[in-house]
């Protein structure tokens, strides 16, 4: 196959930050995706509809002229979130979900939820007003092995949430384990999951073998090969519960290559190319359109996009960094060759 044309896709899990970083990364997403679910974990976090609307305007101002892109905003769920704010969010045309970060689980999650059961009344309101809950599914107990945190979260938290709120639409973000795949497959139609390119392409050797690779470090951390294979099977199997969410997370190179390097892989520069590589390896390029363009839109009850994008089977080398004027972001697969290229 020399070219692959699919309906213009959506990125259903994206970080774009703000300020100079936003201006650097936004063109990469806007040239590939028609829409993206925007994460709210800024400093300070985006916790109200008014803040999200203002952030949306900042994002739109960073979209290059001539590109049609719609940011789909989310609010950061905290213990101080009110039922009135949930109702207001559900009634807003611009707010599409709430994001739950367990406190301390990942980047800028200090304002997150420390006790899941304490926010059950908020889940009830979200169920009532029919607005999705997006979950970073990891426990933060220091006694729990980092490679087990997703599995333990499913066993100790997520199973109970799903049982107690059967009408609540839930997206288990960036699933990384066989157990998470199985949970989503066994759950009702109201529960779905996103899968990132790095978790489809790499196992934990990519972080640890031959020296520490900070630009492959993300949370939830990349797992062993058996889990990667389960994710590939889920992504390429045509199950509408699984759809594209890059979790592309730009950090300055200086903050990644650091004594305490921050978590997150920057993949927006070549998101579709990376997914195409993973699907081609699985001999499933015919399944990419559903995963990238249809299933996520359907879950969020959005119209499917009408335009198309075309990938060409041609080799190109990923730059070492992106950015200028003090912004330097090292992308996933920096200085490496990719075999697909977006026209």
Low-pLDDT segments, ≥5 res: none
Helix content: 25-40%
User: Helix tally?
Assistant: 12
Largest sheet: 8 strands, parallel
The counted number of beta strands is 11
How many whole angstroms does the radius of gyration measure?
A: 19 Å
Average pLDDT metric: 96
Provide the structure class.
alpha/beta
Going across the biggest sheet, name each strand in turn.
2-3-4-5-6-7-8-9
The rough form would be described as globular
Strand content: 15-25%
Order of helices and strands: EEHEHEHEHEHEHEHHHEHHHEE
- End-to-end separation in angstroms reads 15 Å
Structural description of this entry:
The protein has 343 residues and is of the alpha/beta class. The chain is 34% helix and 17% strand. It is built from twelve helices and eleven strands. The strands form two sheets. The protein has an eight-stranded parallel β-sheet. The protein has a three-stranded antiparallel β-sheet with strand order 1-10-11. The mean pLDDT is 96.
Secondary-structure map:
Layout: E1 3-7, E2 10-14, H1 19-30, E3 35-38, H2 49-62, E4 70-76, H3 83-91, E5 95-100, H4 120-129, E6 133-135, H5 149-164, E7 170-172, H6 178-186, E8 191-195, H7 197-201, H8 205-208, H9 225-236, E9 242-244, H10 253-256, H11 271-281, H12 288-299, E10 308-317, E11 337-342
Parallel strand pairs: 2-3, 3-4, 4-5, 5-6, 6-7, 7-8, 8-9
Antiparallel strand pairs: 1-10, 10-11
């Amino acid at each position: 196959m020399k070219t692959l044309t699919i309906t213009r896709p959506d990125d259903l899990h994206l970080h774009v930050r703000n300020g100079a970083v936003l201006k650097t990364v936004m063109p990469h997403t806007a040239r590939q995706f028609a829409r993206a679910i925007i994460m709210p974990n800024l400093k300070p976090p985006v916790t109200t509809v008014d803040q999200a609307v203002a952030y949306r305007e900042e994002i739109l101002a960073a979209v290059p002229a001539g590109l049609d892109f719609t940011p789909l905003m989310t609010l950061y769920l905290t213990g101080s979130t009110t039922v009135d704010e949930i109702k207001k969010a559900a009634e807003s045309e611009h707010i599409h979900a709430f994001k739950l970060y367990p406190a301390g689980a990942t980047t800028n999650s200090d304002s997150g939820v420390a006790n899941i059961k304490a926010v059950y009344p908020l889940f009830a309101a979200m169920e009532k007003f029919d607005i999705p809950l997006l979950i970073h599914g990891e426990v933060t107990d220091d006694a729990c092995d980092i490679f087990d945190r997703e599995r333990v979260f499913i066993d100790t938290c997520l199973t109970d949430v799903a049982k107690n709120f059967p009408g609540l639409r839930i997206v288990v973000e960036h699933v990384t384990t066989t157990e998470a795949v199985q949970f989503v497959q066994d759950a009702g139609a109201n529960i779905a999951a996103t899968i990132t390119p790095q978790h489809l392409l790499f196992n934990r050797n990519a972080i640890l073998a031959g020296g520490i690779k900070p630009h492959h470090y993300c949370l939830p951390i990349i797992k062993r090969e058996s889990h990667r294979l389960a994710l590939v099977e889920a992504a390429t199997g045509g199950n509408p519960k699984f759809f594209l969410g890059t979790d592309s997370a730009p950090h300055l190179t200086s903050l990644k290559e650091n004594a305490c390097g921050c978590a997150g892989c920057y993949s927006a520069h070549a998101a579709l190319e990376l997914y195409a590589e993973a699907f081609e390896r699985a001999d499933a390029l015919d399944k990419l359109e559903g995963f990238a363009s249809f299933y996520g839109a359907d879950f969020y009850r959005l119209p499917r996009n009408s335009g198309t994008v075309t990938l060409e089977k041609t080799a190109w080398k990923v730059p070492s960094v992106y950015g200028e004027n003090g912004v330097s972001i090292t992308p996933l697969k920096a200085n490496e060759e990719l075999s697909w290229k977006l026209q």
